[in-house]
Write a structure and sequence with these properties.
The complex is a heterodimer of chains A (about 220) and B (about 300).
Chain A (H helix, E strand, L loop, with lengths): L1 E10 L2 E11 L4 E5 L6 H9 L5 E6 L8 E4 L11 H11 L26 H14 L4 E5 L7 H16 L3 E5 L3 H7 L2 E6 L2 E7 L3 H20 L2
Parallel strand pairs in A: 3-7, 3-8, 5-6, 6-7
Antiparallel strand pairs in A: 1-2, 1-4, 8-9
Helix pairs in contact in A: 2-3
Chain B lengths: L1 H18 L6 H17 L3 H18 L3 H10 L2 H25 L3 H14 L21 H25 L3 H17 L7 H5 L5 H30 L4 H25 L6 H12 L3 H17 L4
Chain lengths: ~220, ~300
């Protein structure tokens, strides 16, 4: 369980998060949606402890960061480090010893090649593999479906569902609604740094329709000549 | 076109100087002063000093032949401009050293360096198809990255050490061992992204201890074979080998400590000055290490 109480975060004069309060329960998958700049990544970084914020973040496992796997939206790889070495670096940092790595390479990545020469999708899959092999209790997946192919997308959906079945808590941000629909128990809508709405699984269909109507009405007519 | 490229390089250089926090006029003067000091120290032992100057410049020239960099230049400039730029870069990089070697009447070394500068302008070293294998894959990362960037220099130093053994020149062997150790120390000037540190679940003290252990182990894998052979062949001079070994045992942890004192920025003037000071008189580390170690612990608390 992760509890956020009145989390606020500013960068200079610009307030990105406003008093965000929410409880993420064990064994559930939460989707975070919002326009670009709504504060999703900042919220994730605050939960991970990579940014300082006012308010309180508590978890049933302490310290939270040692039990949290964080897949960033744009994973960074040092040059001259292979995929295999990146995985060892991240798992070793959590005190995990990985045996038979080649058998656990579910995305069939070229692990002997330099990670920074991978394509965007492969980088994401590599970072995800490393995060999963850390064997955490909580996961933050920032745009995990971005740039990955259809097969990997299906594998990733299955992975999320299995993690959920294992009682792990997962927070996902994605702009692809269908992926959230398939995996999430609840969706949080973030607007200008505030949780404007929470949507339960049974309301996903209505929410999708509502979003479509709102977005299409607002924007698409402007483009049509 | 070339003019613009050079102006851009100048801008980048001034940004590096500004990043040191020193006034723009002072930083280059200090850098030149430091270069002069290094050269002066090296030329106290003209033969080995010349080797060191050649090797240092060789490494710099080698770095400039990196494939991605050269591909970018080739895509941006036509063939003639590309080779002109590469020649200019190599000349600028080696000019100071060539001038110094000439001033010391070390004609042959100056000629070799000039030749290297010209030849390297026409070379592009492609990265290996997959990656250069290292025995440290399960214990990344500074050493692996550093080794892959400097493997050619390490090979050259090993070859020189072999020549030293063959020619019964014990000083040359010790010089090569020191060169390898210094190269290993330089691996720790690269700060990793905060996310890498965030992943660690260790306490700052545990984190540093693990880094020390690995850094020493990995460096000793390179230098111990040479030092043991040295102590075996020149058994009467075993104490020299012990002094060099002692230096390594102190300098590697010290370099790692300084990296995390400066973190998340790169090691800069203050840390480099301390490191140079300690490299020339390493018992000084005994006095300085505890102070900097505590500073590193304090700094790491913000990230771990």
């Amino acid at each position: 369980m992760i509890e956020l109480i009145h989390i606020s975060k500013s960068f200079g004069q610009h307030q990105v998060l406003h008093e965000v309060t929410f409880t993420f329960e064990d064994g559930k998958v939460y989707g975070i949606v919002g326009e670009n700049g709504a504060g999703k990544t900042t919220l994730f970084r605050c939960i991970a402890g990579l940014e300082t914020a006012s308010g309180k973040i508590s978890a049933n496992l302490q310290p939270l960061k040692n039990h949290l796997g964080y897949l960033t939206s744009d994973p960074y790889f040092l040059s001259k480090l292979t995929g295999e070495e990146y995985i060892y670096l991240l798992t070793d940092a959590r005190g995990k010893s990985i045996q038979h790595l080649s058998e656990r390479n579910i995305f069939e990545l070229p692990l002997k090649e330099y990670a920074n020469s991978y394509s965007t999708g492969m980088k994401k899959k590599l970072a995800l593999t490393a995060t999963l092999l850390q064997d955490n209790s909580f996961y933050i997946l920032d745009e995990p479906f971005n740039g990955i192919d259809l097969q990997s997308s299906i594998i990733l959906t299955e992975i999320i569902l299995r993690l959920k079945a294992m009682g792990k808590t997962i927070l996902i941000s994605s702009h692809i609604f269908s992926t959230l629909k398939d995996t999430c128990d609840e969706i949080l809508v973030l607007e200008e740094g505030r949780i404007s709405k929470t949507v339960k699984k049974e309301q996903f269909g209505d929410f999708e329709e509502e979003m479509k109507e709102k977005i299409l009405k607002k924007d698409i007519d402007k483009l049509w000549l | 076109m070339i003019n613009n490229y050079l102006k851009l390089q100048y801008k980048l250089l001034t940004r590096h100087f500004t990043a040191t926090g020193l006034p723009l006029v002072i930083a280059p003067i200090l850098l030149l002063g430091a270069c002069y000091l290094v050269y002066y120290l090296l030329l106290q032992y003209p033969v080995f000093g010349s080797y060191a100057i050649l090797l240092g410049n060789f490494q710099l020239l080698f770095l400039l032949t990196e494939k991605n960099r050269n591909d970018f230049l080739k895509n941006t400039f036509n063939k003639k401009d590309f080779y002109t730029i590469r020649l200019l870069e190599n000349v600028l990089v080696t000019l100071l050293s060539i001038a110094l070697l000439l001033s010391q009447s070390l004609w042959l070394y100056a000629f070799i360096l000039g030749l290297l500068a010209v030849v390297f302008a026409f070379l592009t070293f492609k990265a290996f198809g997959k990656s250069i294998p290292t025995p440290f894959a399960k214990k990344p990362f500074e050493f692996i990255i550093g080794f892959r960037r400097s493997y050619l220099l390490i090979i050259v130093l090993y070859l020189l050490a072999a020549i030293g053994f063959y020619a019964t020149n014990s000083n040359l062997v010790l010089f090569c061992v020191s060169g390898i150790a210094l190269t290993c120390i330089l691996y720790y000037q690269l700060p990793e992204p905060v996310f890498y540190l965030w992943n660690s679940r260790e306490t700052p003290a545990g984190f540093l201890l693990r880094k020390f252990r690995r850094g020493l182990l990995q460096c000793l894998l390179f230098v111990l074979p040479l030092l043991l052979t040295y102590a075996f062949i020149y058994s009467s001079e075993w104490f020299n080998a012990l002094i060099v070994l002692g230096g390594i045992l102190f300098l590697i942890p010290f370099a790692i400590t300084l990296k995390y004192v400066a973190y998340p920025r790169e090691i800069n003037f203050p840390e480099v000055s301390v490191l140079i000071l300690c490299f020339s008189f390493y018992p000084l580390i005994v006095a300085l290490l505890p102070f900097y170690y505590l500073k590193a612990l304090k700094n790491l608390k913000n990230y771990l």
